Amino acid sequence: MKDEKKEGEMVGYRKFMKRAIELFSSFSIFPSQPILTAMERLLEGPEALGSKIQEASESLLETKQLLQELEWTLEERAGKLRRIQEQYERYSKLASTEKEKSDAFLRELKATVRKERLVSLAITIVGGIVVFFIGVFLSPLVKALFHLG
Question: How many CB atoms lie within 10 A of CB 66?
């Protein structure tokens, strides 16, 4: 019963306010549009205000969720960036260490190859001389064996 009475009072109040708005809008002194807008919002009642508050609350929750997702994504990407930087530093150190080792290895290899070339040349010369002298000493024996001369 009380709710019906309140609704009846609200309807009467709204009618009164609409007429007041119409009256104010007829005077050119008052800026009518802002006043009309404000008065209409007042007349919308607590239900409209509650729904607007609910909409605002839902929007804030959505914004909060989006910000949390954005924060998570940024943290994930920052973590990946840190891992990539660590790998880059590690590979840079490894590359510089390996370059030093490979340079030292190449120097040793060149020195060894030079030594091996000299040893190989010496062996070839000595082998050629040995074959020459064997040929000189065995030449008469071969001639006699095959009756060549």
Answer: 10
